Amino acid sequence: MRVAALVALGVLLCACSQNPTSIGVPAIAESIERFPILGGSAFKTQYTLKAAYPLTPALEYYRVQFGKPWLLCEWSGPAWHYFIDAQGDTPFAVHQQLYMWVNREAQREIMLSLRYLSEQNATLPDSDVQNVVLVEYMHANVAETVERLKLRCPNGEGSAH
Fold first, then answer.
1. Less crowded by CB within 10 Å, the N or C end of the chain?
2. What is the phi/psi pair of residue 108, to 5°?
């Protein structure tokens, strides 16, 4: 029993020591923050940039950055989704796109969220500030994520554009 616990602990410590993929940000990015999350099993990069709705400069940047073995899977894009976030004291409008790259070989995933936040009744974003969040999950079960999120991933090599 003790040996099994030590082996499990060793596997966990070894897995948590993986480094995130070196990911840059677009030159126009502002207020950049980078930090580990989920006990070190994921790494988050967040920033803002000025982009008139419905432009997606961060998406275009990462399409170029992520080549083989990363695959861009269709998730919620390319349409912008609109909803009201009423979780806090003051509800607000959100225009959002979500994208997911998967690396089956390394069992890693990168989620990209693009969001505009506006007044509650805004049917279009009321500013050019786009909030960008990029999260790399370093110990992912890619097959399970593809199924759970109903991602549509290309069967071949490279990135779907």
1. N
2. -130, 155
Residue 53 three-state SS: coil
What is the tens place of the pLDDT at every residue in 94-123?
999 999 999 999 999 999 999 999 998 888
In SS3 terms, 76-140 reads as: CCCCCEEEEECCCCCCEEEEEEEEEEEECCCCEEEEEEEEEEECCCCCCCCCCEEEEEEEEECCC
Count Cβ atoms below 10 Å from residue 34 Cβ, excluding itself: 13
CA neighbor of 160 nearest in space, from 72, 53, 98, 91? 72
52-66 pLDDT tens trace: 999 999 999 999 999
**In angstroms, how far apart are the furthest CA atoms of the chain?**
59
